[in-house]
Amino acid sequence: MTIAQENLVKPQKTPKILVIISGFIIFLLVFWFQGLQSLRQFSWPLASNPPANQTLTAMLRDAVTFLPLKDLRYSDKPTTGHTWFMSSVNDTFDPNDSEYLHFPSYSSHNRLLCLLSRHRYDGAANSYAFAWPNALPHGATLLPGLTYVSDTYYDYTNLWHGLSALVPFVGWHMRKGCAVPPARWVLFHWGELRTEMATWLRSIAEVTIGKVNIETFETIDVGPVCFEEAVVFRHNQGAMAKIRLREVFDRIRCLAREFCNVDMEKIKANEEVRMTLLLRTGTRSFRNETAVVRIFEEECAKMENCRFLAAKSNNLTFCDQVRLLSKTDVLATAHGAQMTNMIFMERNSSVMEFYPVGWKEMAGPGQYVFRWLANWAGMRHQGSWSDDGGPACNGTTARLECFNSFKDRQIGHDAVYFSQWASKVLQEMKEYKRNASLALHSVSAQAISRCKCY
Ligand SMILES: *[C@@H]1O[C@H](CO)[C@@H](O)[C@H](O)[C@H]1NC(C)=O
Ligand SMILES: *[C@@H]1O[C@H](CO)[C@@H](O)[C@H](O)[C@H]1NC(C)=O
Ligand SMILES: *[C@@H]1O[C@H](CO)[C@@H](O)[C@H](O)[C@H]1NC(C)=O
Ligand SMILES: *[C@@H]1O[C@H](CO)[C@@H](O)[C@H](O)[C@H]1NC(C)=O
Ligand SMILES: *[C@@H]1O[C@H](CO)[C@@H](O)[C@H](O)[C@H]1NC(C)=O
Ligand SMILES: *[C@@H]1O[C@H](CO)[C@@H](O)[C@H](O)[C@H]1NC(C)=O
Ligand SMILES: *[C@@H]1O[C@H](CO)[C@@H](O)[C@H](O)[C@H]1NC(C)=O
Ligand SMILES: *[C@@H]1O[C@H](CO)[C@@H](O)[C@H](O)[C@H]1NC(C)=O
């Protein structure tokens, strides 16, 4: 049978073929190995003699490359995407939080952040690099602990801008369990080193995060500085979701009140509507303060259970401001730094804003910053009034020049408009508080929780 014959023949043939093939493979392998040996000996000395530990370390150390902190290639869009600050690295996004860079981390391949950044006037002359902990660049100083690094397009002395730069760090601290404050802060504006932040801002940072040490690099020898751990924020609040901003502002408010011993139970038990007129002295003050005070005082007096208070913002300490705003339901004040204090009011409190002549036309988006802050912190911005009296700019003056000549002028008033506006805002607040107190009674006495960290 043919099938049987075939079956008998095959087993005899296969071993012969196998022997021939394996012999050929062995021959090839030997030939290849010898070739490899000669290659190793003559043209690949590094692989045959593995480098000493020190040699590899030295190579890594020499490979550390410093790049300009401010990348001028992106000067047309300095705040978008990876920004012009540390432009070689992309941000890390966590849900609802602001985008950041973290060193060492998986995305930094476990390398540390190093800076050579003492320049205060030229961000492109400052530089940064990444290095493995055992191969830091030559002459580097390793700074232990956690470092907060901030770059902002604006500054740390303007309260509104400074607060925007601070907020993501408060969020970060909360996400890390509110435990370890940073050993130091390194502040930049356009990659230029900054060594100061406004006193009010520093108070907020110290109350919410811990002691603030701003690194000036003055006590450190020349040469690069590397950080054991660093977190970098370069978009201010950036991609932070509204829900997260509210959590962060809730914590700032709560800790500031705790720090200043504000008795909120007593304040909340009081059902009156409290209006505060916060007055500026000098720039953007009311031209006729007495008249403005009288208008709001009278409007409040018309209402049952309304308390009116006028205060000068310039001589209040941090805790004076926290205390005053903690017991304010309606804040009326001119556009300006003192307005950032609205964050100490209870959520859903109201804000009324006033501008000098020229603002609406010339301030651009800058006129909306306190509307945004109200939104972030959970307040109700009840509109603004813009002085339209006085001379307007004419075509011969440049726009900026014109704005500068108007932005700090005194503010006039419109008695009829002011009283109608105040009446509406006060009535609404009264109704809101009545609603809230009814809701509170129905849910039974709500304990005032300690400042939440999450
Ligand atoms: C390798 O280098 C590291 C860091 O410089 C050092 O701690 C370690 O002892 C070295 N190992 C050897 C085997 O030399
Ligand atoms: C950063 O993101 C851009 C765009 O998504 C990408 O092209 C680039 O390779 C990224 N760079 C790094 C260093 O990851
Ligand atoms: C992010 O915000 C949404 C609501 O906007 C919420 O449902 C979600 O739980 C938040 N995620 C985190 C991680 O907090
Ligand atoms: C300020 O307003 C009050 C009340 O309207 C008025 O009596 C007073 O003359 C005004 N003062 C000035 C300096 O215009
Ligand atoms: C602020 O000034 C007002 C009047 O000028 C004064 O009555 C008040 O005591 C001052 N407050 C502080 C904290 O200095
Ligand atoms: C603020 O007011 C809104 C609408 O009345 C309400 O839903 C919300 O619970 C209030 N928020 C707080 C914190 O009271
Ligand atoms: C325009 O403004 C400039 C600068 O304020 C002033 O010198 C000039 O007289 C003004 N011209 C007119 C027509 O008002
Ligand atoms: C108070 O509650 C009523 C009824 O629920 C509601 O219609 C009204 O809008 C609330 N007012 C305010 C100011 O929250």
Describe the structure.
By secondary structure, this protein is α/β, with parallel strands linked by helices. The chain has 2 domains: about 60-240, no CATH class; about 265-440, Rossmann fold. About 40% of the residues lie in helices and about 15% in strands. The chain contains 13 helices and 13 strands. The chain has helices spanning about 1-45, 45-50, 55-65, 160-175, 200-210, 240-260, 265-270, 290-300, 320-325, 360, 370-375, 400-405, 415-440, and strands spanning about 65-70, 100-105, 110-115, 125-130, 140-150, 185-190, 190-195, 225-235, 275-280, 305-310, 330-335, 350-355, 380-385. The strands form 2 sheets. Strands 1, 2, 3, 4, 5, 6, 7 and 8 form an 8-stranded mixed beta sheet that branches. The protein has a 5-stranded parallel beta sheet with strand order 10-9-11-12-13, with helices on both faces. Helix 8 links the parallel strand 9 and strand 10 (about 305-310). It starts with a helix and ends in a 12-residue tail after the last helix. The model is unreliable at about 1-15, about 35-50 and about 445-450 (pLDDT under 50). It binds 2-acetamido-2-deoxy-beta-D-glucopyranose (8 copies). One 2-acetamido-2-deoxy-beta-D-glucopyranose binds near residues 53, 57 and 134.
pLDDT average, as an integer?
87
* H/E topology pattern: HHHEEEEEHEEHEHHEHEHEEHHEHH
Radius of gyration, whole Å: 33 Å
Please indicate the percent range of residues in DSSP E strands (runs of 2 or more).
Answer: 15-25%
Quickly count the helices: 13
Number of strands: 13
**Main β-sheet, in a few words?**
8 strands, mixed
Q: Give the number of domains.
A: 2
- Uncertain runs are 1-14, 35-48, 443-448
Q: What's the overall geometry?
A: elongated
Which ions, cofactors or small ligands are bound in this entry? 2-acetamido-2-deoxy-beta-D-glucopyranose
Structural class: alpha/beta
Looking at the chains present, what oligomeric state does this protein adopt?
A: single chain
Distance between the termini: 84 Å
Helix content: 25-40%
